[in-house]
Fold:
Amino acid sequence: MSAAEITSQEYIKHHLTNLSVGEGFMTVHLDTLGWSVFLGLVFIMLFRSVAKKASTGVPGKLQCAVEMVVEFVDDSVKSTFHGNNPVIAPLALTIFVWVLLMNAMDWVPVDLIPRIFELFGVHYMKAVPTTDPNMTFALALGVFALIIYYSIKVKGIGGFIKELTTQPFGHWSLYPVNFILEMVTLLARPLSLALRLFGNLYAGELIFLLIATIGLFQLPVHFLWAAFHLLVIPLQAFIFMMLTILYLSLAHEDH
Amino acid sequence: MNLNMTLVGELIAFIVFVIFCMKYVWPPIIGAIEARQAVIADGLAASDRAAKDLELAQEKATAQLKDAKAQAAGIVEAAKKREAQIVEEAAVKAQAEKEKILASGHAEIDTERNQAKEELRQQVAILALAGAEKILERSIDAAVHSDILDKLVAEL
Structure:
C-alpha cells in the first residue's frame, strides 16, 4: 500500500489536493473542470443520441431508460412548478443527471483514478467534481442568477423590492428590518444549495479515504460505505434539483 | 475553501450544458413521450369503443336470434295447419271420387243387366217358338200369331 511509505494524514491530504494551474484567484482546478466537463458531455451525448432517434412508436431499451429519467424530472417539475416556463424542466434535467454522474464518481475506488494518472506523471487527481466547492458554487450561482432574473421579470423591479421590504412586518418603520431578513433568506438559498452538496460529497469522500487507510479490513467497510452511498448520491442530486425547482417556482409567485 | 477561476469555468460549462439541453435534448424527448401518450390514450379509447360496439352487436344478435326462432316456430305452426287442411281436402275429394266411381259402376251394371234381360227375352221367345213348333208338330204361321208371341215375350 502506498500508505506504508507516507502517513495516513499525508495520504488523505494528497488525495484531497486538486490538480491546479495558476496562482491565487486565477487558479484553475484542471481535474474538477476536466471531469465535470467530461461527465457533462457524457450526459449531453447520451441524451442527444436518444433525442435524435426519438420515435413515438415502441421505444428501444436506451430510449426507455432515458425517457424514464426525463419523465421523472418532468413529473417533479410539474408537481412543484405550475407556470409555463421552457427553461426550468431542461435546467432540472441537466442538474439532476450531471450532479448524479459527478457524485457517482465517488463510487470509483479512491486510489484507482489517481494511480492511473500517476503512471502518466500526473501527481494530483481529485476525480469527484462535486467535492470541489467551485463546482457546487458554480451550480448554485447559476440557479441564483435565474432566481433574481425571474423575480424581476415576473414581478418587475418595483415588485421585487416590495417583496424584499414589505414582509413579514407590515409597518413602514420596520422595512429595513424586513429587508435584512429577506436578504438573508434570499442569499441563504444558493449558499445552502452549494454547501449541502459540497458537504455531503466531501464528507463521503473523506470517509472513503479514511477507510482506505485501515489496512485489510477496509474491504467490508468500504463495501458498506459504498452501499450507503447508493442512497446519498442520487438523493443529493435529487435534492439539488428539487430545491432548484422550488426556488424558481417561488421566484414566479406574485404576492 | 478556495474559490477561484474554476468556478467561472464551471459556470460557463453549466450554462452551455443547460442551453444545449434546452434546445436539442429536452424538446424532442418530451415531444416523443407526449405523442406516444396521445397514441396510447387514443388506442385505449378505441378499444373501449370496440368493446362497447361488441356488446351492442351481441345484444343485437341475441335479439335477432330470438326473432328468427319465433318466426321459425310460426312457420312450423302454419305448415302443420296447412298439412291438416290438405289431408282433409284430400279426404273429401277421395270420398267424392269414390261415390262417383260407385255411381258409374252401378249405372254400368244396370245397363248390362238390362241388355242381358233383353237378350234373354228374345232367346226365350225363340225357345218358346221352337218348343211350340215341336209340340204342335206343324208349322204355324209366324206372322199370324206374332201378336200372341209378342204378348208372351212382354210377359217374360
Q: What stands out?
A: Chain A has a mean pLDDT of 88. Residues 2-252 of chain A form one domain. Chain A is about 70% helix and 0% strand.
